[in-house]
Amino acid sequence: MSTTNHITTKWLGKMAFESNNPSGLDLKIDAGPDDGGEGKGFRPKALMLSGLAGCSGLDVAGLIKKMQLEVDDFHIETIAHLTDEHPKFYDKVVVEYHFHGNNLEEKKLQRAVNLSVEKYCGVMEMFRQFAEMEIKTVFHSV
């Protein structure tokens, strides 16, 4: 059975919107002052990058727990290039997975990243439809 997400996004005036989420939480979307907004909300294209990192991050965090790996800290850097012409979109995206710790099992952590990137992360698959993806894994020994 297929799943459908239904999101309602309501205009709050000027350039601001509020969008709900299946989690029950709301988020505000707004343009910056240069574009007539007040800068009091998330930018839509940047939210896409947060969605990408969050989707893959949830996969990796779940695999870290499942594999019982020791990781002191983990973060994802997402660097995206926007096209010059309208409609502007991300044509190249670099996703960097950074792991920090004393006893990092690099091969297993790399496997967790690979499983997310190649198999589990649906947002990554969506991005692959329109952007060149580059994946990097960085290990930081403490």
Automatic annotation (TrEMBL):
Pfam families xref list: OsmC (PF02566)
InterPro entries associated with the record: KH_dom-like_a/b, OsmC/Ohr_fam, OsmC/Ohrsf
Protein's recorded name: Putative redox protein
The organism of origin for this protein: Pricia antarctica
